[in-house]
C-alpha cells in the first residue's frame, strides 16, 4: 500500500486550491506601480494652491465670523473702560482752558443708544478703518455729541459686527441718546439722506446736531453713503475746540477711505504665508501627507487670518 504524498507546492498551494474551489487557482494580485516622486513644478503649484486656499479661507472667515466675534469682544472691553472713566469723572470732553483734555485717537468717548434699532455701541475717537473695526467712531474735526455745532459719528455697514447696518430704518421723529463725559444727550431724527438728497439747513447758533454715517446699498458692496441727521433736543453743553482743525482731517479718516498704513503689515504677513507654504510643500516629501496636514492647516489658517485682517483695512472704512 502506497503512502499519500504531499503536494509539490506545499500546504500554501493546498490552501489556495481549497479556497478557490476544486480545480481552480486564485489569480495573483496585480502589483501597483510605485507613485512617481513629485517634481519641482508640482511642488510649486502645491505651494501656490495652499497660499490661495489660506488667503480665501482667512478672508471669508475674517470678514464674516471672526470680525463679528472681535467686535463683540471689543465692545465689552470698551464699555467697561468707558463706564469706569465716567464714574471717575475722567472721560474726555475736548481740550479747553478749564483743564479738560482732548480725546486720544482710539479712546472711547461716548455710548450711543438707539432703542428703535436695539443698538448700544461704544463710540471711539477716530474714523480710520482700524478705528471703525472696533465700533463706531467720532470724526475728530467735529465737536463731541451734546455740544453745539454738527457732530459726526461713522460706523460700518456689514463687517466687524455691522453696527450701523440698520441705520436706514430710523424714521423721522424717533429719538436716541448719546452719553459722554458731559452727561446724557437726546437727539430727534430729522431723516435719512443719500447722494443727491437736499442737505438740511445748518443748526442755529448755539444748537447741536448729530450726523450718523455708514455705507448705503447691499452689504459688503456699498454703492454710496447713507447719512441720518438728528437735532439735539436736550441742553447744549460747553463746546471746546475739536482735536483737529476743520479741513485738516487726514484722508484715511474720511468716509469710504482706506487705511494705507496697512500695506506694510500686509506685505510682511504675506511673506510669512509664502514661506510657510513653501516649507510645507517641502515637508510633504519628507513627512508624508498626514503629518504635513496636521501641522500645515493650523499654521496656514492663522497666517491667512492675519493677511486677511490687514487686507480688510484696505477696503472702505464704512464697509
Keywords:
19% strand; Sortase, Chain: A; single chain; 35% helix; alpha+beta; eight-stranded mixed beta barrel; 319 residues
Overview of this structure, please?
- The protein has 319 residues and is an alpha+beta fold.
- The protein contains 5 helices and 8 strands; from the N terminus they run ααββαββββββαα.
- It has helices at residues 11-20, 40-87, 129-132, 263-287, 289-313, and strands at residues 108-114, 119-125, 137-138, 149-154, 175-180, 183-193, 208-218, 221-232.
- The chain has an 8-stranded mixed β-barrel with strand order 1-2-3-4-7-8-6-5.
- A hairpin with a 4-residue loop joins β1 and β2.
- α4 packs antiparallel against α5 (289-313).
- The model is unreliable at 6-20 (pLDDT under 50).
Gist?
The protein is of the alpha+beta class and 319 residues long.
**How would you write the strand order of the largest sheet?**
1-2-3-4-7-8-6-5
How far from one another are the termini?
Answer: 100 Å
Radius of gyration: 32 Å
Strand percentage lies at: 15-25%
CATH topology of the domain at 93-246: Sortase, Chain: A
CATH architecture title of the domain at 93-246 = Beta Barrel
The number of E-state strands comes to 8
Order of helices and strands: HHEEHEEEEEEHH
- The percent range for helix content is 25-40%
CATH homology superfamily name of the domain at 93-246:
Sortase
Identify the overall geometry. Answer: elongated
Averaging pLDDT over every residue, what do you get? 83
Structural class, from secondary structure content? alpha+beta
**What's the oligomerization state?**
single chain
Top-tier CATH class of the domain at 93-246: Mainly Beta
Poorly predicted residue ranges: 6-20
Largest sheet: 8 strands, mixed, barrel
With helices defined by DSSP (H or I, 4 residues minimum), what is the helix count? 5
